[in-house]
């Protein structure tokens, strides 16, 4: 398999890749490869490279392969062959053109969703191998422009969008004013010490999607949670450095999150509906820093809402009647097994659930994850093409609402909805909970 | 602290229940260090906020009251929003100058300096004792006051390329401004600002490019670069210790040169002993094995979940840290954890002679004083961190029971009963 394969792609310009390549030397490339392969890569690299039998069992598992009508260059093992195996076979003596190709495959043709791992007879973690390719590219600065911009912001501000400190605080304060038009004495505590819960927000929730933050504040107030948000940097739970594999920035951001929690002496961190941030805070980030497990519990929105509903802290007044389907975000379902919790919540909120096929931990990736949506407009068509399978899955359900408890899935499916004309509404759990939950009369403003 | 009342056994200061009944909402409450004062941020009928200090109401009201602090003389400083403009209030007296935004109020140790970050006309800087830095910037993040209170510093953005101009950002847009004057170099990232004990020098860790980190002192970068570096710390005027990552692992360097022979999976929160002779730091000896190392020698006992900043005893002989294992917190002293475990425990506080350790802890939603690992007899609904008297004989307790705030003085024997 994969003897001779032809790599044909549409021309795409991304200055983060193309212009950067003009500025780096062959020596830079060689040094980065040596550092990653000889000093950073774990024994997994050797095991995976030596174990792969080229059996092709992973091929049909990949939505990019399926979305590109069986083009073998999109098969997971082929992506590895065209990148890390190529680097190994050339003993690190690779050209700038090679790097350009590796970057394209690693950043824009693999979502690191790990669906292929489930079909590999040996459990080879292709996402790990592709991450190594990203790491090599990152060390020489060859990263899609739109991802790199966010990483550069994280490096100093720890948030994804160059938000100044006053912008966060001011936003919270006006959101609290808004909250109080609906909830009597509604409060968004800022920098409160010794609270039970530290809530971290998605960067976009503080700027473009403030409705989500207000909805979370409503839930916190109605459920009478003793909570706070940070009064310092560290409020944004996103870690876009994961996509670039800028491990140093991952470390800085994740340490800031946990140390903010420890400084405020809260019992646990709760985040909203986001896949990559949860994965980084539970796996890549903490492990890079030396923790085997998070120093204090780090709770995803799905886990949090599950608790609130199960324990009766929020009560559902009415259920959604329209048919809904469920998107399973890879980073919380395939990586962390939250599929059952997610379905428990949706059953409590909705009357008519039509599952996608396949579902749960075998569901397909939305094609936007792993940094593909963050790679920005130049690469939009790549993820739309890769998302063809997801679009078909959704259409087949006949659902009117797609529940996507992940920012990336949410935006990615919205784009698929536009392109493939699916006629659905994409919603977060948060949207639906606030729509159907009971707000006691005495709490209403 | 010396002139605090260490004699009166118990003072009932305020019944918070009365205020809960009388007013629509209590936003916040803050206690003075000596425990004599309790400030309540109260929302009145007109949706405005005002302060009650030990029951005495301020005449003024505001749209917001933030960063409320007691000064050592028990004056109150806070940032307030009034008529949609931010400024600082000290005992109700407002600064003349107002700002588009003000945050991060900080007070120097001797209270000679009160400073905060400001935004004015879309520029950013620091206001120090009522005077704004002469230079303002595109952004100013965090605030640091020197030990003598005479200098202030903030991370500032000196260039303002548009979002997505990654090549300009990669050249570096961040610097450290001291009293409004930025260093002459920019970096892609700068953090860990630390003043020298005399306040003459200032250091910070800097990211030089995608792969190299170093330390800059007064803007001059060390010759040595590292795979990674955490925050620097002055040992004395001429020596700075920093946890750095090398190809062998994390270790401690002083002025760029390695001083520990050991390497660790992780190393941070280095602390210098009061006699300046020892360095203790939190380390991971292996993946998921956390402990404290003193001068490079780790405690034998490791903890799987977390180890927080080490605290030296005043005589520099002992080290205590908050540790977490099996989802419970406790304090370890020289590597030996207390037997009693807690849902939460706050940083340990050594007595002046180092013979006792005091901490606040939570068990099942109730707060206790813990002395040398033994839980005090009395429980509290709320408790601020207890403090030893200067002679180490007595303990100041600031607590709320049944909605009533008390200031108590206990002897060591009385704590345990």
**In angstroms, what separates the terminal alpha carbons of chain A?**
67 Å
Beta percentage of chain B is over 45%
Strand order within the widest sheet of chain A? 2-1-3-4
Work out the helix count of chain A. 19
Category by helix and strand content of chain B: mainly beta
What is the domain total for the residues of chain A?
Answer: 3
Q: Which residue ranges of chain B are poorly predicted, with pLDDT under 50 across at least 5 consecutive positions? A: none
Q: State the total count of DSSP E strands of chain B.
A: 44
CATH architecture of the largest domain in chain A: 3-Layer(aba) Sandwich
| SSE-based structural type of chain A | mainly alpha
Shape of chain A: globular
Largest sheet of chain B: 5 strands, antiparallel
The helical percent of chain A reads 40-55%
Would you mind describing this structure in some detail?
The complex is a heterodimer of chains A (445) and B (417). In chain A, 49% of the residues lie in helices and 4% in strands. Chain A contains 19 helices and seven strands. Chain A has helices at residues 15-23, 26-40, 43-51, 63-67, 76-89, 96-108, 126-139, 145-157, 165-179, 210-222, 241-244, 247-264, 275-289, 301-310, 339-349, 380-386, 388-397, 407-420, 429-436, and strands at residues 197-199, 227-228, 268-270, 298-299, 324-326, 401-403, 425-427. In chain A, the strands form two sheets. A four-stranded parallel sheet of chain A has the order 2-1-3-4. In chain A, helix 18 (407-420) links the parallel strand 6 and strand 7. With 417 residues, chain B is mainly beta. Among the domains of chain B are: 1-98, no CATH class; 348-417, no CATH class. In chain B, 4% of the residues lie in helices and 52% in strands. Chain B is built from three helices and 44 strands. In chain B, strands 1, 41, 42, 43 and 44 form a five-stranded antiparallel sheet that branches. In chain B, strands 22, 23, 24, 25 and 26 form a five-stranded antiparallel sheet that branches. In chain B, strands 31, 32, 33, 34 and 35 form a five-stranded antiparallel sheet that branches. The model of chain B has no long low-confidence stretch (mean pLDDT 97). At the A-B interface, helix 1, helix 8, helix 9 and helix 12 of A face strand 10, strand 14, helix 2 and strand 18 of B.
């Amino acid at each position: 398999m994969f003897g001779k394969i032809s790599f044909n792609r549409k021309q795409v310009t991304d200055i983060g890749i193309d212009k950067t390549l003009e500025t780096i030397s062959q020596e830079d490339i060689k040094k980065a490869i040596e550092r990653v392969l000889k000093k950073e890569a774990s024994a997994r690299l050797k095991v995976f490279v030596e174990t792969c039998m080229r059996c092709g069992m992973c091929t049909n598992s990949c939505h990019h392969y399926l979305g590109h009508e069986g083009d073998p260059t999109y098969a997971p093992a082929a992506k590895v062959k065209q990148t890390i195996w190529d680097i190994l076979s050339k003993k690190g003596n690779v050209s700038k053109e090679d790097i350009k190709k590796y970057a394209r495959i690693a950043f824009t043709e693999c979502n690191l969703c790990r669906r292929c791992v489930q079909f590999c007879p040996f459990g080879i973690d292709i996402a790990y191998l592709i991450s190594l390719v990203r790491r090599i590219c990152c060390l020489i600065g060859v990263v899609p422009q739109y991802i790199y911009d966010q990483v550069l912001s994280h490096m100093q501000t720890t948030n994804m969008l160059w938000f100044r400190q006053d912008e966060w605080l001011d936003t919270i304060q006006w959101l609290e004013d808004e909250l109080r038009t609906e909830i009597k004495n509604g409060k968004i505590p800022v920098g409160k010490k010794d609270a039970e819960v530290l809530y971290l927000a998605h960067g976009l929730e503080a700027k473009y999607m403030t409705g989500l933050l207000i909805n979370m504040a409503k839930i916190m107030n109605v459920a009478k949670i003793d909570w706070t948000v940070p009064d310092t940097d560290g409020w944004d739970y996103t870690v876009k450095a994961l996509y670039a594999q800028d491990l140093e920035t991952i470390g800085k951001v994740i340490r800031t999150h946990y140390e903010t929690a420890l400084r405020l002496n809260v019992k646990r961190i709760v985040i909203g509906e986001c896949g990559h941030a949860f994965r980084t805070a539970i796996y890549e980030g903490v492990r890079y820093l030396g923790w085997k497990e998070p120093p204090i519990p780090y709770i995803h929105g799905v886990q949090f809402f599950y608790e609130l509903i199960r324990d009766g802290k929020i009560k559902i007044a009415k259920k959604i009647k329209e048919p809904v389907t469920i998107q399973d975000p890879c980073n919380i379902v395939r990586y962390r097994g939250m599929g059952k919790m997610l379905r428990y919540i949706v059953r409590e909120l909705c009357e008519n659930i039509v599952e996608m096929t396949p579902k749960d931990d075998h569901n397909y990736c939305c094609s936007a994850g792993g940094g593909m949506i963050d790679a920005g407009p130049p690469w939009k068509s790549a993820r739309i093409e890769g998302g063809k399978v997801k679009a078909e899955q959704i259409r087949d359900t006949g659902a009117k609402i797609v529940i996507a408890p992940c920012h990336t899935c949410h935006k990615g499916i919205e784009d698929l909805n536009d392109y493939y004309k699916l006629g659905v509404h994409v919603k977060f759990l948060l949207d639906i909970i606030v729509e159907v939950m009971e707000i006691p009369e005495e709490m209403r403003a | 602290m010396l002139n605090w009342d260490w004699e009166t056994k118990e003072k009932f200061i305020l019944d918070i229940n009365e205020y809960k009944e009388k007013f629509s909402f209590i936003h916040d409450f803050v206690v003075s260090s000596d425990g004599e004062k309790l400030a309540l941020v109260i929302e009145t009928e007109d949706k405005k906020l005002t302060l009650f200090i030990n029951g005495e109401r301020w005449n003024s009201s505001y749209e917001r009251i933030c960063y409320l602090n007691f000064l050592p003389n028990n004056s109150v400083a806070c940032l307030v929003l009034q008529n949609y403009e931010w400024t600082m209030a000290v005992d109700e007296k407002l600064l003349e100058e107002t700002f588009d935004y003000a945050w991060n109020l900080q007070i120097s140790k001797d209270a000679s300096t009160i400073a905060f970050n400001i935004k004015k006309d879309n520029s950013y800087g620091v206001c120090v004792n009522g005077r704004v830095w002469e230079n303002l910037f595109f952004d100013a993040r965090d605030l640091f006051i020197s030990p003598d209170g005479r200098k202030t510093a903030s991370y500032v953005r000196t260039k303002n390329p548009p979002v997505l101009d990654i090549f300009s950002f990669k050249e570096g847009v961040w610097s450290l401004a001291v009293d409004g004057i930025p260093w002459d170099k920019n970096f892609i990232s700068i953090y860990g600002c630390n003043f020298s004990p005399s306040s003459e020098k200032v250091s910070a860790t800097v990211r030089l490019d995608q792969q190299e980190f170093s330390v800059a002192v007064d803007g001059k970068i060390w010759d040595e670069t590292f795979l990674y570096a955490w925050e620097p710390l002055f040992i004395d005027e001429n020596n700075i210790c920093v946890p750095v990552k090398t190809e062998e692992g994390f270790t401690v360097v002083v002025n760029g040169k390695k001083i520990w022979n050991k390497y660790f999976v992780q190393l941070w929160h280095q602390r210098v002993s009061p006699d300046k002779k020892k360095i203790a730091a939190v380390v991971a000896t292996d993946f998921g094995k956390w402990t404290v190392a003193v001068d490079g020698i780790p405690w034998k006992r490791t903890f799987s979940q977390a180890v927080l900043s080490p605290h030296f005893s005043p005589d520099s002989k002992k080290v205590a840290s908050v540790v977490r294992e099996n989802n419970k917190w406790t304090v370890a002293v020289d590597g030996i954890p207390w037997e009693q475990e807690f849902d939460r425990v706050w940083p340990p506080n050594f007595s002046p002679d180092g013979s006792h350790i005091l901490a606040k802890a939570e068990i099942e939603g109730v707060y206790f004083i813990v002395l040398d690992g033994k839980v005090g007899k009395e429980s509290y609904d709320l408790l601020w961190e207890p403090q030893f008297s200067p002679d180490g004989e007595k303990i100041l307790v600031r607590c709320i029971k049944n909605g009533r705030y008390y200031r108590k003085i206990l002897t060591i024997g009385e704590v345990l009963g």
